[in-house]
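Lecture notes, unit on protein representations.

Consider one protein chain, 138 amino acids long.
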Amino acid sequence: MELIFTVKRDKQTVFEYLTQPYKFVSVHPLIYKMTDLGGGYYKVYEQVKFGSVPYKFTYKANIVSQQNDEVTINASVAGITKITMHFYLRSSEAGTAITEHISINSLLPIKRFMHNLFKEQHGQLFKNIEGKEEEIKE
């Protein structure tokens, strides 16, 4: 699955929001906490609503980046679903163009659901990055 987004922010800022867990959590619509496990691995805390019923779960993920152009996030959920999200960042006149490739391998028949979820939630994620006020650095 491929998703394409444009964010009216510079590439370095977008890169930081994808690679720094505290920034990522501040803009992600479903992930509310990440705990550093070391070596680029994190315990991720996420909440998804099924109708009006919230479902909380955790999983292990790692973040790998190459300079400020590419970010890969690999996640393993309950040992039965593996997700790889590869983000390519490119400066554009409008800010940053993001091409995201998502791969989902699961024992469960959830690909269609997950594709729809990623399309909606990552659209919101990048809108949140675009609208996020930068912290004042002293």
